[in-house]
Amino acid sequence: MNKMEGRNHSMVSEFILWGLSQSQSIQVLLFMIFLMLYLLIVTGNIVTMILITTDHHLHSPMYFLLANLSFVDMWLSSVTTPKMITDFLRENKTISFAGCMSQIFFAHFIAAGEMVLLVAMAYDRYVAICKPLHYFTIMNLKRCTGLVLTSWTIGFVHAVSHLVVIVQLPFCGPKEIDSFFCDMPLVIKLACMDSHDLDILMNANCGVVGVTCFILLLISYTHIFLTVHGSSKDGASKALSTCTAHITVVLLFFVPCIFIYVWPLNVIWLDKFLAVFYSVFTPLFNPAIYTLRNKEIKNAMKRLISYCLGSKGNL
């Protein structure tokens, strides 16, 4: 029994993160840059959620899903970015074993959930453009809530399937991770065992969620463009304008994830860049993309500003 317990418990109590740079001056600069970016991420996504929640003009299925996307994006960045920011000011960049496992769990939980949510948003656009007369019947509150709950459920199952495998690995020696967070492929390589087969298994697991969602998205948008192809130029232009923001967000999120977890290139500096891109820049770009390209969001922002200025004037 004691032998089994010894095998199941790791001898490594913490891991060392190398971060993005070893230069102290560069780390101070990166601290200021990423702190500003993280504050923009939190502020932008919170403002988007407030606008959609408080403005009755935005109480529609599309914006309900967009509010959920903003919520997910904010937490996707919060899993790794605050730790990365504080580590820029630390000489010893360590993370406990429990903290490392938590990062892996929540990163995959939220990322997989966002993939499914993006599919739900594509389905919403498909119904709105291809079946406009039945839109509010099909995309009712119950259906939208079910889609969001499905995204969280799939994300949770996906994350648990990773965690139950990784937490059992024998970590008995190497503990340095050449990244700014506990990235699953890098942590697996530290296990005191041949990790080749496990790498393939984990990539396949990620591929089931990532590639399936990506294929569903391609099918959805292809069907939309084929549907509007025979319609008037104005109709096709409107559909293209409506879907462009969604497609941009999909590409910004899926491409880095696929090259990290499904089809890894095993180039350290590129993996770091892609990890930063999907955990920092994608959550930053999403509210900007939807705000800058969406007239209703812009109008809601103007109404909110006018309301706030009016309230101050009354005081």
What can you tell me about this protein's structure?
The structure is a single chain. This protein is mainly α and 315 residues long. It has one domain (2-314): Rhodopsin 7-helix transmembrane proteins (Rhopdopsin 7-helix transmembrane proteins), CATH 1.20.1070.10. The chain contains eleven helices and three strands; from the N terminus they run αβααβαααβααααα. The protein has a three-stranded mixed β-sheet. Helix 4 (97-130) runs antiparallel to helix 6 (141-166). The longest helix has 34 residues, at 97-130.
Helices and strands in order:
Layout: H1 2-8, E1 14-17, H2 24-54, H3 61-87, E2 94-96, H4 97-130, H5 135-138, H6 141-166, E3 176-177, H7 184-189, H8 196-229, H9 233-262, H10 268-293, H11 295-314
Helix pairs in contact: 2-3, 2-10, 3-4, 3-10, 4-6, 4-8, 4-9, 8-9, 9-10
Looking at this protein, list some descriptive labels.
single chain; 315 residues; mainly alpha; Rhopdopsin 7-helix transmembrane proteins; 11 helices; globular
Which overall shape is indicated by the principal axes computed on the Cα atoms?
globular
Derived from helix and strand composition plus strand pairing, the structural class reads mainly alpha
The radius of gyration is: 22 Å
> Approximately how much beta-strand content do the residues carry?
under 5%
CATH architecture title: Up-down Bundle
How widely separated are the two ends? 71 Å
Write a concise synopsis of the structure shown.
The protein is an all-alpha fold and 315 residues long. It has eleven helices and three strands, in the order αβααβαααβααααα.
